[in-house]
């Protein structure tokens, strides 16, 4: 965790409250604030969010802006942060929506966990792009 926090320059680290004590020092040494978020939406992150305005101004983004930093598996050495742009994710979603012919009449039954890249980006973004329903398992 120390490597990922330092390499990414993350400023916020979310963890389950059960892991908070073990990860607090790692987060602090990387300069990241650590908050908790439980499986039912409870925790210090939810508490902090409840004090914020219900709406906000949406920041304008270009297709070249960074959308996600995904770490590789490290098969050729140390894991590396692969930078995915807004345009990259949008073009993938649009291409797969067309190829798979997803429409608002479709429902996707997703069996992969949300932390899996295919589930997080492709399945979720294709269903949003096609206006269809996403049923995570």
Question: What is this entry, summarized?
Answer:
By secondary structure, the protein is of the alpha/beta class. 39% of the residues lie in helices and 20% in strands. It is built from 5 helices and 6 strands, in the order αβαβαββαβαβ.
Question: What's the CATH architecture of the largest domain?
Answer: 3-Layer(aba) Sandwich
Q: Tally of extended strands?
A: 6
Helix content: 25-40%
What is the residue-averaged pLDDT?
A: 90
Strand order of the main beta sheet, please?
A: 1-2
Q: What is the CATH topology of the largest domain?
A: Rossmann fold
The N- to C-terminal Cα distance equals 27 Å
How many distinct helices?
5
* Unreliable spans: none
Given the helix and strand composition, which structural class is it?
Answer: alpha/beta
Give the SSE order as H and E letters.
HEHEHEEHEHE
Describe it for me?
It is a single chain. The protein has 137 residues and is α/β, with parallel strands linked by helices. It has two domains: 1-56, no CATH class; 60-137, 3-Layer(aba) Sandwich (Rossmann fold). Helix content is 39%, strand content 20%. It has helices at residues 2-8, 20-29, 44-50, 86-100, 117-130, and strands at residues 12-15, 33-36, 66-71, 81-85, 107-110, 133-136. It has a two-stranded parallel sheet. The protein has a two-stranded antiparallel ribbon with strand order 3-4. It has a two-stranded parallel sheet with strand order 5-6. Helix 4 packs across helix 5. The radius of gyration is 18 Å and the shape is globular. 10% of the residues are buried. The mean pLDDT is 90.
